Amino acid sequence: MREDLVRAEILATLAPEPLNRSQVAARLGLGVATVSEHTRRLIELGYLRELAPQVAGPGRPRVPLEVVPDAAYTLGLRVHHTHLVGVLMRTNGSEVSRFTLPFDPHTDPVGQLTKACLEVLADPGTGDRVRGIGLAVPGVIDPAKGVVRMSPHLGWSDLPLRPLLADRLPVPVLIDNDTRASTTAELLFGTGRDHDDFLVLAVGGGVGMGIVLGRRLHRGPDGVAGEFGHVPVDPSGPPCVCGRRGCLETYAADYALAERAHERGLTPAVVPVADLHRLASADAPGIRTLMAEAGATLGRAAAGVVNVLAVRALTVIGESHVLWPYFEPGFRPAVEGGVLSGLEITVRQWDDSAHARGAASLVLATTLASR
Predict the structure, then answer these.
(1) CA 46 → CA 25, 67, 197, 330, 332, distances in Å?
(2) pTM of the model
(3) What are 209-243's pLDDT values in tens digits?
């Protein structure tokens, strides 16, 4: 485990309540000496502080540690094809503030992103405590080089986004796929509290998967891991934005559901996800069946990944969470009938700032605690 990630995990472990070094070590499966060395550095940085010693029986008093939440901030941006969502986050994972701005990915996107970040950095009350900026971007992202390899939703291809932003901004900049960014937040503040190995299934404008193994986020060569939406389902299926046919995304993403509902004559036109939700809630003919079919397709594919990686937990996120009650009747039986052992399934309530919080967590995990 990288040193910066260890420090981020220590901060996340202490976020809910003060603990002594032995308790932190036990929760993270680390040696007390290792935890002591990292907490010493975090205290020097001002991110942790010691509380009054606690005496309980013989031996040396135990010294609780607590996070200093406003010692530093991280800024996360969720990049959407119509808008930006920003979240300024404390070291304990709580929000300082959030904002939404219009965004046009086709008109000087680097200039728009730079302007949004500089406005936050210029805030006299908080700007000087921002230690890094993270961007959650849909598509195939190479986080090591900071390049957007392919983002059909944004219309970007081979865009060196991080180097361009780094030249204009005074703090470190990181970018990653939006699902992996949110998976980092789950590792630090969500599912990772109870599981060292888990999956995050994101369903919305696309279909993605975050993979955590041994408390490490798996990115794969050039950052291409997790493109779950492009698992082939049917070579003669619908065309996909990637140029192939019959990818999982063409059966389960919200745009694909809307297209299929129209093709089946269930809607007079291709409608937004809010209308699909309204129709499903009203039990309009055929809509719930369509969604259960999509859920079953998702479930069969997810069961295969669960079996290969031997994980025991899967967390569902994404804009389509409002449709999940109608996916689940197909999804859960397909998963339970396909996995070799039990699987804990959690569905997160979703809002438009979730990927932005993930991007801020990405900075916490890879930049902030190593300063």
Answers:
(1) 20, 9, 31, 49, 46
(2) 0.91
(3) 999 999 999 988 877 888 899 999 999 999 998 88
Dump pLDDT digits (tens) for 14-36. Answer: 999 999 999 999 999 899 999 99
- Give yes or no for a contact between 349 and 321, defined as CB atoms under 8 angstroms apart: yes
Q: Which two tokens stand for residue 134?
A: 């993270």
Number of domains in the chain: 3
Same domain? For 205 and 321 the reply is yes
Contacts of 17 (CB under 8 A, 6+ apart): none
Phi, psi dihedrals of residue 87, rounded to the nearest 5° = -130, 125
Which among 172, 175, 86 is positioned nearest to 137, based on CA atoms? 175
Mean pLDDT across the stretch 295-305?
Answer: 96
Alpha-carbon dihedral sign for residues 337, 340, 344, 347: negative
Helix axes 32-45, 3-14, angle to 10 degrees: 80
Kindly state the average pLDDT of the residues 253-263.
Answer: 94
String of b and e for 181-198 (b: at least 16 CB within 10 Å)? bbbbbbbbbbbbeebbbb
What's the CATH number where 102 sits? 3.30.420.40
Name residue, tokens 């935890």: 35
> What share of the chain in percent tops pLDDT 70?
97
Q: Which amino acid is at 161?
A: L
C-alpha to C-alpha distance for 67 and 325, rounded to whole angstroms: 38
Assigned token pair, 136 = 């959650």
Which residues constitute the domain of residue 157? 73-184+354-370
In this structure, the answer to whether residues 225 and 152 fall within a common structural domain is: no
Give the β-pairing of 73-79 and 130-137: parallel
DSSP readout, 194-249?
T-SSEEEEEESSSEEEEEEETTEE---GGG-TT-GGGSBS-TTS-B-TTS-BSBTH
pLDDT of 365 over the 80 cut? yes
